[in-house]
Specification:
This protein is α/β, with parallel strands linked by helices. The chain has helices at residues 27-35, 55-63, 79-90, 109-119, 183-189, 202-211, 236-254, 258-281, 285-300, 302-313, 320-327, 334-338, 341-357, and strands at 14-20, 42-48, 69-73, 95-100, 103-105, 123-132, 138-140, 143-146, 152-154, 168-170, 178-182, 215-226, 328-330. The strands form 2 sheets. Strands 1, 2, 3, 4, 5, 6, 7, 10, 11 and 12 form a 10-stranded mixed β-sheet that branches. Strands 9-8-13 form a 3-stranded mixed β-sheet. The longest helix is centred in the C-terminal third of the chain and has 24 residues, at 258-281.
Length: 362
């Protein structure tokens, strides 16, 4: 009860998990912007993945006296998945935010995210609009997948940051750079898979949210600036390997029907073959070796992939067909995947532009 007998609204307590690994050149700016944001009821859990630089020392020197900031240190690098799982184990909030350490948030960033979830119980996972670091262009307003998961598109990518999008709209996958969910939903569906430490994180969480019959959305007025690629220090071979591993896992998740799964695997194998021929012509063998390495991993871990698939679908609240309709946002005719790649790329670009146009707030 408040002053004069009036009820005082209690704002949900939010845990903001910032995962750090050697972020010395940008972590302090991220933490400063979060601590200065306008939402009043939150904690910041800084999870350090065994950094070897001065990033944590610098942050503690400046912000160590702020009671809202807690440091959690891992003795080893657990990757994105394991590191964020560790952060969640220490979180106290009703709402959980995952935020990259190479970002700067707008003052009202968190308020918009919390308001969206409070206003609509059907929302299970929401991301911010992610801008380039200079704030001039949009980096991504969410991700769209094509059928068979062959192509992935960042919504409104490189569009002007002043583009007026609908306040809330659905996407295939939320970006892990800035996303919010409910503790109660995580308790129901689980979090990240530590066996796949990179690139299977936000996609897996988004898939499980859809499977729980909740929506994955972008809250366009919640904005952050992001240094693209700052947290990825790998070469192209290692990145290609981990991306393909994540896609193999996701194919087993999304395509539950055996026929659909076989079709998805065939189309992607064909696409990988065409891609490998291109890199062979360029004499770039590192990508070819990475593809072979990832496919070999998939064969060796078939039992794991199958168990994962059964485990996820045991908690389903929608049908496999409904899941595909919500997860796959851009559909191309099968012959285009088997035709020269330029045709499918151009058609995919046309379809994504059409999809984006439907989201513009006029």
């Amino acid at each position: 009860m408040g002053v004069g007998g009036k009820m005082v609204e209690v704002l949900p307590f939010v845990s903001i998990i910032i995962l750090n690994y050697n972020g010395e050149s940008y972590l302090d700016n991220c933490v400063a912007s979060v601590l200065e944001n306008s939402y009043p009821n939150f904690e910041v859990l800084l999870v350090d993945n065994a950094s070897t630089d001065l990033s944590v020392k610098n942050v503690l020197e400046v912000f160590g006296g702020d009671s809202r900031l807690r440091l959690i240190q891992s003795a080893t690098n657990l990757g994105f998945s394991g590191g964020n799982n560790l952060g969640f184990a220490h979180a106290k909030g009703d709402f959980i935010v995952f935020l990259n350490n190479d970002t700067i948030v707008d003052p009202s960033w968190l308020t918009y995210l919390v308001n969206a979830l409070q206003a609509d119980d059907s929302i299970g996972l929401a991301q911010s609009t992610i801008l380039m670091f200079d704030g001039q262009k949009i980096q991504t307003a969410g991700w769209l997948y094509s059928n068979y998961l062959v192509q992935k598109h960042g919504l409104a990518e490189n569009k002007d940051s002043n583009l007026r999008l609908q306040s809330v709209f659905e996407v295939s996958v939320a970006s892990g750079a800035s996303m919010i969910t409910r503790r109660s939903l995580i308790a129901e569906i689980g979090l990240f898979d530590p066996k796949i430490p990179f690139f299977y994180d936000d996609t897996l969480l988004s898939f499980k949210v859809w499977l729980a019959n909740k929506r994955v959305v972008t809250v366009s007025e919640s904005k952050i600036r992001h240094i693209q690629g700052a947290t990825n220090v790998w070469n192209i071979r290692r990145t290609t390997y981990n991306l393909l591993k994540a896609k193999i896992c996701l194919l087993f998740d999304v395509y539950y029907s055996i026929g659909d799964l076989v079709g998805g695997l065939f189309v992607n194998l064909f696409s990988i073959g065409v891609n490998s021929l291109f890199f062979l012509k360029k004499r770039n063998l590192s990508v070819i070796f990475a593809n072979i390495q990832a496919l070999t991993w998939g064969l060796k871990n078939f039992r794991y992939l199958w168990r994962n698939r059964l485990s996820h679908w045991a908690k389903k609240k929608i049908t496999p067909r409904q899941l595909q309709e919500r997860f796959v946002r851009i559909r191309l005719p099968l012959p285009l995947y088997l035709a020269p790649s330029k045709l499918s790329i151009n058609r995919f670009a046309f379809e994504t532009e059409k999809y984006e146009s439907s989201l513009i707030d006029v």
